[in-house]
Amino acid sequence: MSRGAGAVLEDSVAEEAVLWMVRLQSGEVASAERHAFEVWLATDPRHAAAFSRIQKGLGAAQSSPWRGRSSAPILQAINAPSGRRTFLRNALAFGGLALSISVLGRTAGVSWPSVGELETGTAERRTWQLADGSHVQLNARSRVATAFVDNQRRLQLYQGELVLDVAKDSRTPFTLRTAQGVISSTGGRLMVRQNADATCLSTLEGSLRLTPGKGPSITIEPQRSVLFNDRVVVEQQAMRKGETAWLSGWLEARNQPLGEVVDTLRTYRRGIVRLDNSLASLSVSGLYPLDNSDQTLEMLEQQLPIRVNRFGPYWISIERA
């Protein structure tokens, strides 16, 4: 079946294509950066297809909102809280296109209203006190919705990562929902990260109940790390030291795949960081500053057989040395 101009674009590919379009139309691109764009275009047929569809959409509109405009303020706005998904949604709508659900920060199956939303931008961590006295701290590029209605305490994690300190209340469990299931606690401390197709849960203090979307409820004891999808618990183990290091602005890696490390860095760096897929499984160990991604990249370059290429201020390409 043919996919028309209104078809859904893959999240990461659409984001990269739009950011390249903004950069190219600004007129600020040097020859090295243009070469990087050509390499990006040639490395994956999805790149060329996404960029072509955006070009066609802008052509049909007979004008572009980015032509001749400096890319710096645009990219700065993208990385502000809510700016990324808002910009991408509007940019692709302008071209008659649509992003898939996760880029817009929506999650299917939410049966309760969003009374309030909390979110962080690129390289931002922030803590809030909730209506019941609980506290939530969001990692960079994270978003939640809160609902304290009808004597219920509810939180929805749309994207990113959080630490939740649940105020004790044995009569009213605190419910935290992700795309894969529901977590219930009457008091304690937990950390949750929303991945693309699974949720990572760590019980820092106290036990809790976990109910995968299509599976039975189970009890998770303190100091456990759990990976679950919408059916089952995929993996459960003792918490690793350093899992909460981001609360203090650090990334503590212990034999962690480079792909996961780079995924974390992306939320702390403006623009695009591309990684050669063949390098994703390289093992990384060390303590790295989240708030200084340039230093972290330099440290990784010294430790691993990689080369970090910089094309302009908003494009990093990590390749084999």
From TrEMBL:
Domain FecR N-terminal: 15-55
Domain FecR protein as annotated: residue spans: 118-208
InterPro entries in the record: FecR (IPR006860), FecR_N (IPR032623), Ferrdict_sens_TM (IPR012373)
Alphabetized GO MF terms: sigma factor antagonist activity
Protein name per the record: DUF4880 domain-containing protein
Organism: Pseudomonas helleri
Lineage: Bacteria, Pseudomonadati, Pseudomonadota, Gammaproteobacteria, Pseudomonadales
